[in-house]
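FORM 12-B: Structure-to-Sequence Request
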């Protein structure tokens, strides 16, 4: 059984063999994966040691103290937080060997081809079609709000493979090669001026059956693993006290006494407490993950994340007054990551509006919490037993 002392010993031996100061960054990351120190709870040979998930922090702390490079996790958040756990649970041995290492090292960035113009909140209504032709599936359709598609090498994709059964039953899950000539990525410029999102058109894209995850027609169940991990990745990220947006407002409050009012003080105190409660709740949720896959509780964390970000960024703009209306750069650009704390208050205020939409709308997540966490009666659904092809659209 691998314990903390054993992991420290393994990490020390690894650092002796691959000194961070003299080892190429990519070589270091590849070697770390091979040594089982990438994500210690994964199986041996897949970047892990089969150790408890809670011990990852032991390795990370030792490597950080030695000045080791990381794998730039924000750049490949979808790959690390959503694609990897889905591949681990449903992928074949060949798929795990092919995809997990370059995903973890950041050599191959992933995106998510789920939402569509007519299937956002009701994702199971998706209409992108995948038709079997020999050993391949031919895919046609359109996806939207695809974060980072312009940087992605691979995508997790769900498509309709059987229109003659109810909508949840006729979906299949694939790994899609974003370099296929039928993949057309077009930027969507947002209210922030940036185009981190994209719309993706798929025209006769050929996906080998070997890149299917799970059984044909079982894609909705596979997608639940992705979605549950997505909500934890968004709403339950590890932060220090005063990490994230609340830290920026608290810093301004301390450094700018000329901006303070009694009302602002009361509102800041409330949001500071709310942010700390959310941070601790996220830590509790991550500890629960040690026992297995994330459940619907992640929906509650993501709900709180969206509300807090929007309220905190609103308070920050009010606190700054006229300065809060300033905006540093409206240049159209396609960034590699979202930087909430690296820019000014105006950016945070505008970008946070998307938090209640991305990763599942707040309205849908409220239903998930009500039905799957609190056990309340489900809303009436008249389309559950109707073939997808017969649904009104």
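FORM 12-B RESPONSE
SEQUENCE OUT:
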């Amino acid at each position: 059984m691998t314990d903390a002392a054993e992991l420290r010993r393994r990490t020390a031996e690894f650092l002796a063999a691959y000194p961070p100061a003299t080892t190429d960054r990519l070589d270091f990351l590849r070697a770390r994966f091979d040594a089982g120190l990438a994500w210690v709870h994964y199986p041996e040979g897949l970047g892990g040691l089969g150790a408890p998930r809670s011990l990852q922090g032991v390795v990370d702390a030792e490597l950080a103290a030695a000045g080791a490079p990381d794998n730039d996790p924000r750049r490949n958040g979808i790959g690390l937080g959503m694609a990897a756990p889905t591949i681990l649970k449903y992928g074949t041995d060949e798929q795990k060997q092919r995809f997990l290492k370059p995903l973890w090292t950041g050599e191959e960035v992933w995106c998510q081809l789920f939402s569509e113009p007519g299937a956002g909140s009701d994702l199971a209504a998706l209409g992108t079609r995948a038709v079997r032709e020999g050993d391949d599936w031919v895919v046609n359709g359109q996806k939207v709000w695809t974060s980072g598609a312009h940087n992605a090498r691979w995508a997790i994709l769900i498509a309709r493979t059987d229109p003659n059964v109810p909508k949840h039953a006729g979906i299949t899950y694939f790994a899609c090669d974003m370099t296929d000539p039928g993949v057309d990525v077009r930027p969507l410029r947002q209210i922030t001026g940036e185009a981190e999102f994209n719309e993706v058109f798929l025209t006769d894209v050929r996906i080998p059956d070997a890149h299917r995850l799970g059984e044909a027609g079982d894609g909705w169940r596979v997608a639940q693993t992705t979605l549950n991990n997505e909500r934890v990745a968004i709403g339950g990220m590890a932060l220090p006290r005063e990490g994230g947006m609340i830290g920026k407002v608290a810093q301004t409050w301390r450094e700018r006494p000329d901006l303070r009012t009694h009302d602002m003080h009361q509102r800041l105190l409330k949001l500071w407490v709310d942010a700390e409660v959310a941070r601790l709740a996220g830590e509790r949720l991550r500890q629960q993950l040690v026992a297995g896959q994330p459940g619907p509780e992640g929906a509650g964390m993501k709900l709180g994340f969206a509300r807090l970000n929007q309220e905190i960024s609103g308070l920050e703009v009010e606190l700054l007054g006229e300065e809060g209306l300033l905006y540093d750069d409206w240049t159209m650009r396609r960034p590699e990551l979202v930087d909430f704390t690296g820019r000014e208050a105006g950016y945070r205020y505008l970008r946070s509006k998307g938090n209640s939409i991305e990763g599942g709308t707040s309205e849908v997540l409220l239903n998930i919490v009500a039905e799957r966490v609190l056990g309340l009666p489900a809303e009436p659904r008249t389309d559950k037993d109707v073939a997808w092809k017969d649904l009104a659209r």
